Amino acid sequence: MDARTSRYHEVYARWLRDPQGFWGEAAAEIDWIEPAKTVFDAKDGVYGRWFSGAVCNTCYNALDRHVLRGRANQPALIYDSPVTGTKRTFTYAELLDEVKTLAAVLKDMGVAKGDRVILYMPMVPEAVFAMLACARIGAIHSVVFGGFAPKELATRLEDCKPKLILSASCGIEVQRVIPYKPLLDAAIDLSSAKPEAVMILQRPQVEAPLIAGRDHDWAALIGAARKAGKTADCVPVLATDPLYILYTSGTTGRPKGVVRDNGGHMVALKWSMKNIYDVDPGESWWSASDVGWVVGHSYIVYAPLFHGATSVLYEGKPVGTPDAGAFWRVISEHQCVAMFTAPTAFRAIKKEDPKGVFFEKYDLSKFRTLFLAGERADPDTIAWAENLLNKPVIDHWWQTETGWAIAGNPMGLGQLPVKHGSPTVPMPGYDLRVVDDGNKELPRGTMGSLVVKLPLPPSCLPTLWQADDRMHESYLAEFPGYYKTADAGFIDQDGYVFVMGRTDDIINVAGHRLSTGGMEEVLSAHKDVAECAVLGIKDQLKGEVPCGFIVLKAGVNRPVAEIESECVGLVREKIGPVAAFKLAIVVARLPKTRSGKILRGTMKKLADGETFAMPATIDDPAILDEIGSALKGKGVGV
Ligand code: COA
Ligand code: AMP
Hints:
Elements: H1 8-17, H2 19-26, E1 40-41, E2 49-50, E3 55-56, H3 58-71, E4 75-81, E5 86-91, H4 92-108, E6 116-120, H5 125-137, E7 140-143, H6 150-160, E8 164-168, E9 170-173, E10 176-179, H7 181-190, E11 197-201, E12 215-217, H8 218-227, E13 237-238, E14 242-248, E15 256-261, H9 263-275, E16 284-287, H10 294-306, E17 310-314, H11 326-333, E18 336-341, H12 343-352, E19 369-372, H13 379-389, E20 393-395, E21 407-408, E22 425-426, E23 432-435, E24 448-453, H14 468-476, E25 482-491, E26 497-502, E27 506-509, E28 512-515, H15 516-524, E29 529-539, E30 543-552, H16 560-574, E31 583-587, H17 600-607, H18 622-633
Parallel strand pairs: 4-17, 6-7, 6-8, 8-11, 11-12, 16-17, 16-18, 18-19, 19-20, 30-31
Antiparallel strand pairs: 1-2, 3-13, 4-5, 9-10, 14-15, 21-22, 23-24, 24-25, 25-26, 27-28, 29-30
Bound molecules: coenzyme A (COA) and adenosine monophosphate (AMP).
């Protein structure tokens, strides 16, 4: 626990002196069909490309090479599903067999290198097979989280135009079975881009009706491929070819298609498993996220498999499946040495079992570290988890765009002292700065925009799907020479990073990233709504939840409660239950500046019960009293 005994400073300085040498060495951990002649080509792509010209295959590095080198019988994937009462272990050889067979099916369906395949899947092993099968044949997968509504899925279909969609008959939310097929069919109806085919994994909880000519039964196709002895080999791809597209919330209703390449992604993720997470090949690791999120992509599927570790795939919740001891059971049963989840999961456990009664029942002697990310980790929750576990609890900061940690406490290099509220220090690859609006660097301890000096390290997005201009506009234009993280924060005198919040209208609800702008677009479409503002307000469990203020059109005299409930329903229908939009409040007016800008910051402080100074530019201070009373009426704020 001593800054002097950690190798971090030495390793970071080595990277800063010679980034290409650093990543060139890290690349030796990957099996290349043809290695790169240039580690970084500054002239390629929007801001340069890593490993240009190299040829590789991601699936080979995740599976084949481990089978060839002695890990055939080691568990690769452990599926643990309290919601279905199922547990299954796949060795590396078994996982490879599943993936090879599914890849052959995809090929037979006409999917070829560069084609897009959408996955709308629950947390079942077949989702992992599908991601790896796409990687094997050079197809580009795009996983869409199951909690999104048809319209969100349709937007993604429209943007990436998949040849094929892979889905399942249902997802299971604790006790509730959610049929996926009606959502999928509705999305395909809404989208002008239609897939040629759909493959449905029928789960026993609910059978999905199949549309003749378009829909195929997953098990039947796999069965036929097995009978015919069909398998597919790895297709060589360029390191710079896309491995996947993952859509994430932008500032409007139109999500951004974050592109991940093959080569840089493998190099950075492989490096991170030992150096950040201190996991060794052969050890068991658990990331309690969802394959629909970036954490699931990187740390349920790809990184542990590149590393030859065992990864747990958990279909359940931190509480309620069946109790607040679920996480301890999984860690102990599968002998996990480390786990990764969002702080909200620990807040849920803390709320239900504050004294850790369930914790006492399990043997966690193999467990070394708890990693948290996805939202700001509140010091209370960290302290509670530290006390309970008596093990390091490590906050780290990253984004869908980066695919791995921007800042963290690199346990494999030797732990640095923990400061609650800080995700510790920038990782090698990230030259992190704090700047003001004029792109001028700010002194230590001063809040500003967190930006990364270009180029971004391997694994970070090279661009947005078929939108180089939007990539430039969204991330590179505002602070020339830097990547805009859109997070605000500061770096203290010891070089520790503090991430305090977003600079745009993205909010973080239970570790899920959502756009308030997107929700406002939905509310504005309601026939009675004249204008609206959606803000993220503090929530004990989810960190933040959205709250929508609505001004009605003149002459509307229907019951307000009815309109509020319609608005709640509309966001659920158009964005999905994951938005957790449950608070719509009709108000007479919104507080604005004299130039007409809605005073969101002030409204948020009011809702959060914080003190605030009356903005000098406010048009009419009386409106804030009206907002305060409306919030009180709903039991929110002071
Ligand atoms: N398919 C369909 N619906 C889903 C879904 C899925 N895959 N995932 C969530 N939902 C639904 C939930 O059922 C819930 O619906 P409801 O409003 O009808 O109750 C809604 O979306 C909100 O879900 P969630 O945010 O998960 O809240 P919750 O109250 O069900 O659970 C936690 C709260 C804290 C237990 C839960 O958010 C959790 O485990 N979070 C872990 C964080 C995480 O995985 N983060 C990912 C990035 S690391
Ligand atoms: P996502 O792209 O969904 O992973 O969300 C990324 C955003 O989540 C970041 O831009 C931050 O705003 C927030 N975030 C993620 N990890 C942390 C963290 N450790 N501390 C503070 N904010 C975080």
